[in-house]
Design brief:
Layout: H1 5-12, H2 32-41, E1 50-52, H3 63-72, H4 81-95, E2 102-105, H5 108-119, E3 126-130, H6 135-142, E4 147-151, H7 160-166, E5 172-176, H8 188-201, E6 206-210, H9 226-229, E7 235-240, E8 253-257, H10 259-266, H11 276-285, H12 289-312, E9 316-317, E10 324-328, H13 333-342, E11 345-347, E12 357-361, H14 365-379
Parallel strand pairs: 1-11, 3-4, 3-5, 5-6, 6-7
Antiparallel strand pairs: 2-8, 7-8, 9-10, 10-12
Helix pairs in contact: 3-11, 4-11, 5-6, 7-8, 12-14
């Protein structure tokens, strides 16, 4: 069942409360240039804008999460210590680790910010890709930390050899797997080889593996890097409840790390950063395997439809192990994005240097059918 805003508020028993009216731009889905355009265009945009721009789950939280939120409203006057503790325990059980290995964040965006603060400085740079999820690089630049960017390869995959070479003397390497915005993934063997090479060439460098899209991966060679952190204090894995769990607006994420690393990161964390509603919803969601499977199937089917449409139209569609596609439309993205927005479809902004590649998030099947009709006209 698709959970619209109206249904969500109704399920919580809030009547018409503007309390849950979502902000236009969330942390992980924040698109700087698109934001400027949308703010200017929203008054002219048709009602019912279809948001295929920020890799959100169009179906929203599952029924267990909604019920957990409803029940937790009675605790909204309390600080979230107990709900956060329950969430930490649930995450630890799900991953087969100890609670001391888990760090919570206000979305995984906070985890990424914490790692940049903790492990980079004026003498120890950040290594990241181009393009990749921009928060670590942008934050590092904001606080005056040096950043080395490594372009993706011809197949839109992270160039792990070049990233390992750039890691010498680095404080932190950001490894987004699957990568946003290119949707490509590296398998278990490649990840382990990369970690081993960085260890040889720069033993003190911390590697942050962002697995925000973990649940969407179908590639059989892929494995989570979580088991590796137990024996490697220089490795951190981050996760989010914003994607398959449909909770981007609630802001809950976490990292799993060696206990010594986790203890260090806790010092950089915003206290009480996960509110009681988000903590309750996340605790209910992480073990809801039936709902996760449903969302995986919905994404897989709508993505296959969208891929087939673009390929039939003659466009090259990159490999995707996430809830979005990267399509080479052979022209600059910005005018296409603007035209789609005017027609009621918000799609991704340009991601230099891939300025002819359109990133389109996967919505519901109905939304993708509407979107392809608009794209048919815009791309004609």
């Amino acid at each position: 069942m698709t959970v619209s805003r109206r249904h969500f508020v109704s399920a919580l028993g809030l009547g018409g409360a503007g309390l849950l009216s979502p902000p236009l731009f969330g942390a992980r889905g924040h698109e700087d240039r698109l934001a400027t355009w949308l703010q200017a265009s929203m008054p002219r945009a048709p009602a019912g804008l279809i948001r295929l721009d920020s890799n959100e789950n169009p179906n929203g939280p599952g029924p267990r999460a909604l019920e957990a939120i409803r029940v937790m409203f009675g605790e909204a006057n309390r600080y979230p210590d107990t709900p956060e503790g329950a969430l930490v325990e649930a995450i630890a059980r799900e991953h087969g680790v100890s609670a001391e290995n888990v760090i919570l964040g206000c979305g995984s965006s906070e985890i990424l910010r914490m790692c940049v603060e903790a492990y980079t400085n004026s003498a120890q740079h950040l290594v990241t890709a181009e393009p990749t999820f921009e928060l670590p690089g942008n934050f590092a630049k904001t606080v005056g930390r040096p950043v080395v960017t490594v372009p993706v390869d011809a197949k839109l995959r992270l160039d792990l050899d070049a990233m390992a070479s750039a890691a010498g003397g680095a404080g932190l390497v950001f490894f987004c797997n699957p990568n946003n915005p290119t949707a490509t993934v590296h398998g278990d063997a490649a990840v382990r080889d990369f970690v081993a090479r960085v260890r040889r060439e720069s033993p003190a460098t911390v590697i942050l593996i962002d697995e925000a899209y973990h649940e969407y991966v179908d590639d059989p060679s892929y494995r989570t890097a979580v088991p590796m952190v137990m024996s490697d204090p220089k490795l951190i894995v981050s996760r989010t409840f914003s994607k398959v769990f449909g909770m981007a607006g609630l802001r809950a994420g976490y990292a799993i790390a060696h206990r010594d690393t986790a203890r260090n990161l806790q010092g950089w964390r915003l206290g009480s950063g996960v509110n009681v509603l988000a903590a309750a919803a996340a605790t209910a969601s992480i073990t809801d395997h039936e709902h996760i499977a449903l969302e995986q199937r919905r994404n897989r089917e709508a993505k296959a439809f969208t891929r087939a449409w673009f390929e039939k139209a003659g466009y090259e569609v990159g490999a995707s192990e996430a809830n979005f596609l990267m399509i080479d439309i052979r022209r600059e993205v910005r005018p296409v994005r603007d035209a789609c927005g005017t027609a009621g479809i918000a799609v991704g902004r340009p991601f230099p240097p891939l300025i002819t590649h359109l990133r389109i998030s996967i919505g519901t099947m109905e939304e993708m059918k509407k979107a392809t009709e608009v794209l048919k006209r815009v791309l004609a």
